[in-house]
UniProtKB/TrEMBL annotation:
Gene3D superfamilies: Phosphorylase Kinase, domain 1, Transferase(Phosphotransferase) domain 1. The keyword Transmembrane does not apply. SUPFAM superfamilies: Protein kinase-like (PK-like). The lineage of its organism: Eukaryota, Metazoa, Ecdysozoa, Arthropoda, Chelicerata. One of its GO terms (molecular function) is ATP binding. This is Protein kinase domain-containing protein. Keywords: ATP-binding, Kinase, Nucleotide-binding, Serine/threonine-protein kinase, Transferase. PROSITE patterns: PROTEIN_KINASE_DOM (PS50011), PROTEIN_KINASE_ST (PS00108). Residues 21-163 form the Protein kinase domain. Belongs to the protein kinase superfamily. STE Ser/Thr protein kinase family. MAP kinase kinase kinase subfamily. It comes from Oppiella nova. It comes from the Eukaryota. One of its GO terms (biological process) is immune response.
Length: 163
């Protein structure tokens, strides 16, 4: 049975039994684990599997993602643990701007850039301490129904005196 935890913000993250999730193909690999397409509750999702020995990193990423609630930032849906991995269940992008095989107009690119900027402004306006993305680049711009979403990685809490 899933339990629910609530952060200081209004976003709620479920703690789930990982047997509820059907992992599919791997779509990315990073220094802390892998990302897979998956099915959870009849919904296509992305699952980031983090090595158990990186629990400190997992706790930080979960805490950061659970505070974010903006239409232009990828949303954490649930977390889980199994014998080998720590799981972050997130929205699944249709595509990555960087990987698009079709041409798009300057107008479309500007629209995506504007959406990205709204996500960055949301991060910078967070209270009590602003958040910096640190890795803005096209591979971290995901597409969802024609809108761009920032993939969150490498967030840093800044101080207003240094920004």
């Amino acid at each position: 049975m899933a339990s629910v935890s609530k952060s200081n913000n209004t976003h709620i993250t479920e703690k789930i039994d990982t047997s509820e999730v059907r992992l599919q193909e791997r779509i990315d690999k990073g220094s802390f684990g892998t990302v897979h397409k998956a099915i959870w509750r009849n919904r296509k999702v992305a699952v980031k599997l983090i090595d158990k020995d990186r629990e400190n990193y997992f706790d930080i990423e979960e805490a950061q993602l659970s505070k974010l609630n903006h239409k232009n930032i990828v949303r954490l849906l649930a977390t889980g643990r199994d014998k080998e991995n720590l799981w972050l269940v997130m929205e699944l992008a249709e595509d990555v701007v960087h990987n698009l095989q079709v041409s798009y107009s300057v107008s479309q690119a500007l629209q995506w850039l504007h959406q990205c900027a709204r996500g960055v402004v949301y991060l910078h306006d967070m209270k009590p301490v602003p958040v910096l993305h640190r890795d803005l680049k096209s591979p971290n711009l995901l597409l969802f129904n024609g809108r761009t979403i920032l993939k969150i990685c490498g967030l840093v809490h800044g101080s207003t005196s240094r920004i």
